[in-house]
Amino acid sequence: MEKRAVFATRHEDSRGRYHEEAPSATRTPFQRDRDRIVHSTAFRRLKQKTQVFVAHEGDHYRTRLTHSLEVAQIARSIARTLGLDEDLAEALALAHDLGHPPFGHAGEDQLDECMKEYEGFDHNAQTLRIVTKLEVRYPNFDGLNLSWEMLEGLVKHNGPVTGPDTPISSLPAAFRNFHQLADLEPDQFAGPEAQVAALSDDIAYNNHDIDDGIASGLFTIDDLRDIPVVGDAFRGVRVEYPHLSDRMVTYEAVRRLIGIWINDVTDETRRRIALHQPQSAAAVRAMDVPLVAFSDALAERQRPLRAFLYERMYKHYKVNRMRSQAKRLLADLFDIFLAEPETLPPPWRHDAAQVTEGRRARIVCDYIAGMTDTFAMEEHRRLFDPSGMR
């Protein structure tokens, strides 16, 4: 284990929380952030939110919760190797998908379409809305009152969100409506731990989509033979263990592939550290390129994998059918709740009464976005299937 890097985010120097609280006697600020994420309602709901497959399709496919746990494990490993704050990297990884609605990207696309006349929907912006407003668990403030470092990491984990061609006015509504957004330095990169969490997400979904795609029968090991890096890993396992079942070959190959991706990002990041020599987390944020990155060679070689998964998995006709059903289901829910807010349960019904249509639409959107796949299907049955009347 390496000692703490000079450019790591230091919990002793945290910029604090927007609502003042006494420090914890037993935890650092970032450990406290992680625990608040784990205990949140939004985090628990991830157990029945889709990654690619709808939650009821089977118990072995990844959900948003299992994906988030896998991302957190990878983020901790990389952060430890680079001498960064493991707790902050883990907390950011656990929180990164909180804003996803039911039914994965199909759900996000449909909610954005439903909200087209009401400032749209974006899952990253919804994550900020959840942790600063919608989670109501504390008597003195709304949201989770996370540290500055957590909030800026959640907003900017994919890079700066404002710049010469992207003013704040062009951002999703939840970003624009967060009064302290400018304080999060949106024109700069996030701190190093947030950058680690973002690439850990890429590593997890690249490799675990291979696992789920094979397990679901959408493609086979042989279909991957010409994919750079991936094909070599599977061939290597079959040569070394010729009698393994395809399932065991997949487990071993995916394990090796995760290692390849982790080693690449740590090697490339060390190269950039030596080149740029940042002396603080603030210096990392102020760089004109990310500090944490894949090498150009691996970034180029993983493009065929993403193209393959897009065609053979995300656009497979079985997945398309699920997407189509999911979008129609969410459109039905949105339309009825907007037109008949009295059908909303409390306290949503109370909040949606006597407000403008735009405000009601956002309340309906928040309610639907917080649903699990299974709850959304059950809610639709109760509202549209006469047998669900009670």
From TrEMBL:
Record has Hydrolase as a keyword: yes
Q: Where do Basic and acidic residues bias regions lie?
A: 1-22
Coiled coil location: none
Q: What is the protein named?
A: Deoxyguanosinetriphosphate triphosphohydrolase-like protein
Instruction: Extract the ranges annotated as region (Disordered).
Output: 1-28
Which GO MF terms does the UniProt record name?
A: dGTPase activity
Domain spans labelled HD: 64-206
Protein family membership: Belongs to the dGTPase family. Type 2 subfamily.
Q: Which SUPFAM superfamilies match?
A: HD-domain/PDEase-like
Source organism, top-level taxon: Bacteria
Q: Which UniProt keywords apply?
A: Hydrolase
Gene Ontology biological-process entries: dGTP catabolic process
What PANTHER family does this protein map onto?
A: DEOXYGUANOSINETRIPHOSPHATE TRIPHOSPHOHYDROLASE-LIKE PROTEIN (PTHR11373:SF43), DEOXYNUCLEOSIDE TRIPHOSPHATE TRIPHOSPHOHYDROLASE (PTHR11373)
Which Pfam families does the UniProt record give?
HD, HD_assoc
